[in-house]
Amino acid sequence: MEADAAWLPPEVFRPLGSRRVLVRGTGPLVDTVAAEVADACRRHGGAVLSGAPDDADLVLEADGGSGEGYTLARRDGTTTVTAEGDRGLLHGLFHVVRLGEDAFRGDRAPEEHRPALALRMLDHWDNVAVHPVMGQVERGYAGGSLFWADGRARDGLDRVRAYARLIAACGVNAVAVNNVNVHATEARLLTDRIGEVARLADTLRPYGIRTHLSVTFAAPVVLGGLETADPLDARVRAWWAEATARVYAAIPDFGGYVVKADSEGQPGPFAYGRTHADGANALAGALAPHGGTVHWRAFVYDHRQDWRDRSTDRARAAHDHFVPLDGAFAPNAVLQVKHGPMDFQVREPVSPLIGAMPRTRLAIEVQATQEYTGQQRHVCWLGPMWSEVLRFRPDGERAAGRLADALVAVSNAGDDPFWTGHPLAQANLYTFGRLAWDPGAEPGAVLDEWIALTHPGAPARLAEGLHAVLDSSWHTYEKYTAPLGVGFMVQPGHHYGPGVDGYEYSPWGTYHFADRDGVGVDRGAARGTGFAAQYAEPWATVYESPDTCPDELLLFFHHVPYGHVLRSGKTVIQHIYDTHFEGVAEAEEARRVWAGLAGLVAPARHARVADLFEEQVRCAREWRDQVNSYFLRKSGVPDERGRTVY
Ligand code: GCW
User: Fold this and answer.
1) From the CB of 260, is ligand 1 less than 6 Å away?
2) Secondary structure (3-state) at 599
3) Which of 34, 159, 360, 402 is the least crowded, having the fewest Cβ atoms under 10 Å away?
């Protein structure tokens, strides 16, 4: 099956492609824009103009700069995009596509558009060689890798080019092409296999996507034959400098490195008694002369914890490790922090590290691949979750301040014909790009865009149906899984489906502490791990007390009795029962709404989603029954509405 057109079906180019269009400027991306315009005009009967713009309907013009901004205006029957440079022109083109016929109506006072975050990146957890446990794509739910097959970079890169075009159209400008867990084969992409990365970079470049590579901190040892990877050792630094120079010889616009160090078994600076700033700066130093950046992940915690030890709190780890290093990182080092303190759960507070390192460049990492949110078998549109993160103000002020320099998502795309396994998970990929461009955007409006682009000319009934299925799908998922921010309760290893005690006695630091009296983790300063005190005010105080802590995070911050009354007025135990029944009912309702959209959606697409809804409803019931039964058995408190609990 040919790859799905996703949000760029040919039809969305009709308004532009049926007009008289002039493209002006120089630069490689101007050629891309000109080719897009020529293709659209050929399909839809428009004309590509040259020379004087007098009779043009649309003028796309790039100055010689390198910025990504552009100005959109319309006067006297001509729409103009005046871009700072060729990169901005590409974004301007896709803006016109999004506007459709509206781009050619009435007058439009000049509007300036510019991305809020300079770097908008997708990280692929793709392995080159199929990993015995993790497969080809770690936590991948969309088939194999787009980039790698049969142990090397794919020969045919048409899908990669189509991917670059799709992600550029929603604003993404960088991709990391391999897993942050760097295994032996993948380590060599940095050195003798850089040619394969260069071919990918050549394919991504025409759409303004810069290529990044995940590297192992131990590269000087495993690739360079040195006996140490100590970041302060002169030979190690020289090795990185040379290796990096060779990378730039192959890929002149290479973006930089992504590093997972001292995390879940990956090597790092701790082995040499060095700090993470020492580690990051060694690589940053090698990249600096070439204009590259190192993305250093803050996901550093003890994954060999003793579950008996109540004093170690994984949630504290990133802040404990990194805040003391604020100001010590090189200017071209970016600390990449997961949006929550744990690990991409359906509900977590925003990481306290965000806002706590004013002298450090920060990237916020979200997970488009739905490891903990239904693995692309369940509908779970994450736009509202990400928007909450991006609107969070560490000091409680609503005023806009600098939250981060970059937004990164672990990609949910693979070689699946629908790109993302679940066709509706395309909405997550699209929404990510748009929110990275404009973190203040209304997620509902972004979803409107996605719906309109993906289903051009769709009747209102389809748009309404898609909203009904997607708008609150995140809350639905939250309702039938782990309650009130407590997290996990998943099957160990693959993380799909319920396993209430799956991680309760494990070394991973992910516990809910349910007993006969209550449930939750005490993370306050007064009687817990002190995690709440890592926040600035007002949040430290808000989270410290169960009386002020938001309901949805109560069990993240507090161990409370089952009879504890939430701010909603319900007891914790009744909330657990109610939400689990509601979550399943909502999933069943979404399945019903989707069934009613048959005939309005392409048959293959409709059938794929319909099949997945069967699995979602099955799994949601399993979650409901296991969670409810577990808490009935622990607490002995029956459901006040007498529903079936096993
Ligand atoms: O969520 C966890 C995943 C790991 C992943 C790790 C990380 C790439 O279960 O598979 O490893 O996070 O973010 O490094």
Assistant:
1) yes
2) coil
3) 402
The 8-class DSSP code of residue 498 comes to: B
Q: Is 178 in the pocket of ligand 1 (CB under 6 A)?
A: no
Based on the residue annotation, tell me whether 196 is a catalytic residue of this protein: no
ipTM strictly over 0.90?
A: yes
pLDDT at 54: 77
Residues 261, 323 within the same domain = yes
Point out the catalytic residue in the list 371, 416, 478, 544.
371
Does the Cβ of 299 fall within 6 Å of ligand 1?
A: yes
Q: What pLDDT score was predicted for residue 399?
A: 54
Does residue 76 lie within any of the structural domains?
Answer: yes
Which tokens hold the place of 549? 């802590």
Residue 208 token pair: 């303004």
Ligand 1 neighbourhood includes 475 CB (under 6 angstroms): no
Which of the four pLDDT bands, split at 50, 70 and 90, describes residue 51?
confident
Probe residue for ligand 1, chosen from 127, 133, 139 as the CB with the greatest number of ligand atoms within 8 Å: 139
Kindly report the protein residue whose alpha carbon is nearest to atom 3 of ligand 1.
139
Query: Among 348-362, 400-414, 422-436, whose mean pLDDT is lowest?
Result: 400-414
Residues 157, 107 share a domain:
no
Give the end of a domain, one of 93, 113, 133: 113
Q: Taking CA 42 as the corner, what is the angle to CA 36 and CA 47, rounded to the nearest 5 degrees?
A: 90
Question: With 90 as the cut, is the pLDDT of residue 398 above it?
Answer: no
Ligand 1, atom 11: nearest CA belongs to which residue?
Answer: 181
Confirm whether 640 is a catalytic residue: no
pTM: 0.98
Amino acid 429 reads L
Q: Are residues 495 and 619 in the same domain?
A: yes
User: Who has greater pLDDT, 63 or 446?
Assistant: 446
Please tell me the distance between residue 219's alpha carbon and the centre of ligand 1 in angstroms: 20
Confidence of residue 52 (pLDDT cuts 50, 70, 90): confident
The whole domain housing 595 covers: 478-520+559-635
Residue 398, both tokens: 């609503």
Angle, nearest 10°, between helix axes 86-99 and 443-454? 80
Confidence of residue 23 (pLDDT cuts 50, 70, 90): very high
Locate the ligand 1 atom nearest the alpha carbon of residue 134 and give its number: 10
User: What is the tally of structural domains in the chain?
Assistant: 3
Q: Which of 37-41, 191-195, 394-398, 574-578 has the lowest mean pLDDT?
A: 394-398
Strand boundaries in 487-603, DSSP class E? 518-519, 560-561
Residue 504 among the catalytic residues? no
pLDDT band, residue 366 (cuts 50/70/90): very high
Mutational pocket test of ligand 1: of 369, 371, 408, 411, the residue with most ligand atoms within 8 Å of the beta carbon = 371
Strand residues in 346-489 grouped as ranges (E): 361-367, 406-410
**Are both 158 and 19 inside the same structural domain?**
no
Ligand 1 atom with the smallest distance to the CA of 180 is: 8
Q: Which residues contact 21 (CB under 8 A, 6 or more apart)?
A: 37, 41, 46, 47, 48, 49, 56, 57, 58, 59, 60
